[in-house]
Amino acid sequence: MNHITIHGNIGNDFELRYSNSGMAVVEFSVADTHGKDDKKKTTWHNVVAFGQIAENFAASAGKGNSVIVSGRYEVEEYTKKDGTKGKSVKVVADEIGMSLRWDRWVKDQTEAVMGKVGKMFPNSTLMGDDDF
Questions:
Q1: E strand or H helix at 71, and its extent?
Q2: Residue range 8-55, pLDDT digits in tens
Q3: Cβ neighbour number for residue 115 with a 10 Å cutoff
Q4: Taking CA atoms, which of 92, 113, 122, 132 is between 20 and 30 Å from 32?
């Protein structure tokens, strides 16, 4: 059985994109750090999610958030520019959740949401209670 669960922090900004068939896809990295002081080691995992989980993740998470990812390893072989063979390892996510180990997840998301709205609708203005 090919199954892995990782816990770590999202290490990069990511972008939700859609395949030619309309499938949502998001790729990101997770830093899994363990050990203390001089023996501290970080392992980076490349993660990909598809469909609804990709859309939900992209709407909910950001760089630095602590996440738990459950899925399976997938190894892809490819040809490098110099003609030699290479391998790429990814975790294909079945589940992604926010970790509550070090931080509460119940946060005021207003600023982040409004930032996304502003990017989507750059000419929009906010309405106050007096505008209704």
A1: strand 66-79
A2: 999 999 999 999 999 999 999 999 998 888 899 999 999 999 999 999
A3: 10
A4: 113
The two tokens of residue 87 are 């391998």
Query: Which of 12, 14, 7, 23 has its CA nearest to residue 71?
Result: 7
Please give the structure tokens belonging to residue 35: 């050990």
pLDDT in tens, 61-84: 989 999 999 999 999 999 999 999
By CB atoms closer than 10 A (0-12, 13-18, 19+), residue 93 is buried
Could you name the CATH architecture of 4-106?
Beta Barrel (2.40)
Radius of gyration of the chain (CA): 18
pLDDT of residue 112: 67
Burial classification of residue 86, based on how many CB atoms lie within 10 Å of its CB (0-12 exposed, 13-18 middle, 19 or more buried): exposed
H/E segment holding residue 127: none
